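Morning, I've got a small favour to ask if you have a moment. You're getting the sequence in one-letter code plus the fold written as tokens. Thanks so much in advance, here it is:

===
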Amino acid sequence: MTTAFLSIISLNRRLATGAPERLLFEDGVNLLVGSPNTGKTKWLETLDYLFGEPGADPFEDDEDQGLAAKYDAASAQIRVGEETFWISRRWKEAGGKGKIYVDQEPMLAKEFQHWLFEKLGIPLLHFPKGNPMSGQTWPELSFRMLLRHIYRRQGFWTDLADRQPEAEQLACILQFAGLAEHVFSEDYGTLVEYKLQVERLKIRRENYALTLNELARELLADGDIQVDVSTVTIAAAQQRLEDQRQSLLAERDILLSQTAGAVLTTGQRSRVAELGVQRAATSVQIENLSRRRNEVSDRLGELQRYRSDLAEEIERMTRAADAGAILSDLRITHCPACDQMVKTLSEHSADCFLCHQHLPAEPIIDGMGAVRLRFESDRLAGELAEADELLAVISREADKLSADAAAAEKELVEIDQELRPARSVIAALADDRIGAVDMRRGQLDERERQLVRVSDALDVGVSLTSEIVRLEKLIEPLETSVAASARAVDFDAAAAHLEDGMNAYLEALNHLQPNTWRHNRVRVELSSGTFRILVGRRLWSKALGGTDSLYFLMAYHYGLLTLSTVKGAHYPGLVVIDVPGDFLGEKIGDKENFIVQPFINMLAQEAYAGAQLIITGASFQGLTGAHFQHLPHVHIA
């Protein structure tokens, strides 16, 4: 059964003149009696407004807005389980139109509904509107949605909850039956979200692959990628380009060698080869010297910062020694605990005048701080001297590396000057053929750069695949958990509870007035995706006429009320029904008593202590076992 029943103790309105109006209710059946135009419907609309209706005032739908001006506040004393609370709304108070006051604490409508859910023990959850995989955001199942099944308005007698979408209606029934937290669990919502993400990523990856293939064929040469773009085909194309590059380099070397052989003597060729070797060695030497010089420069900077820190620390120690010498003669004059002046008890005492402990020899006390300072100063001075020595060594090494690098660069310039005449002669003869080879090498380099760009673009597809794999690993345990939770949900048992309650009401009507219900038994079909109530084999709305629909909907509220005592269910034990005086053209005044009697009999049971029905009517003459609330004043326009 639900954690706590919800019932109304009193309903109050305050006139603009300050005069109060009040209705008092009790547990069980409450009959709000009055002839037409006595304000029964307006009282119930006031209650609806107090339960979080978002309008500016409880009568904003009135054509002339007269009632909104007539009243300036409304309140209700409610009982939730064993606790009582005052809820109120003050639509004429500045800043109060959108707020609900709970024991004078203002709340927004959504906050109030969350508070009420918590008090009633009803779990807060979200549900899908339609197909869970549609991608739509799951809305919150609010108390206002549930209230459409608890409060039957006078003009809403054509459906279980008029103008409520099927998905929302199903969610409400599952919530009342105590199944919604299992069907629309947090794991299920997470599972749906992960699956949607995977589908979106797969579509994105597919579209990305198609687009990349089209762009790659436009960017790359025909021979690079012929079938499809992938890491394998890119690697194969890069290897082909590297083979062609090496072939061109070999061809270039052959051209240079042949040209050199034709224009240079044997001695000149040997000298050019020797200079080439020297030039390569010198270039390597310059590179190594540059790297070492950078390393030494970084080390030199670290040591300079370390020496600076040591110098600052020595300066602070010097200032501390000077401060100690100046402050050593100061004595404690006031107690640090009570701030009273300290008085020496004996001028010749060998004890501390403050803590009265025995004092050691005066030179020892005076010298302890100075010794520590000297020790720290000596240690820092030694470290400073060591740092200066390291700085000198590293500075000399840096200077030597700079000198070696300058000498190597000078040697490289001299080699280039000696090679220049031979290069000019060779280039003059081989310029065209070498230029053609170099141009083909440049084309290969550009194709390589394009392949690298496409390869980088492939990384996006790889990251998409990695994300899909990660999500699928998260989906697997969630699917197991959701499937186990679904197997534990007994939809048939929940449907049977509601079905039995509705049929019990219809059977009670036949007992009170034979042949009132002449149709077949009501059947309830409930699953995670559907909720239908059938009469025989037909949907109830298509099988029943006017008065029979009235009986059916009363049976529906009776069946919901029986869920209040079912373990694990979340129906709050409250029904509010505004019966129309003229239902589809048929007067129902003579039917009021016997349609209410089954509720009186049920709510008199101990299991329903604290449950409540509030129902309007014209007379209810001769009906016993209920609490009457008469509205005698007729409001005439």
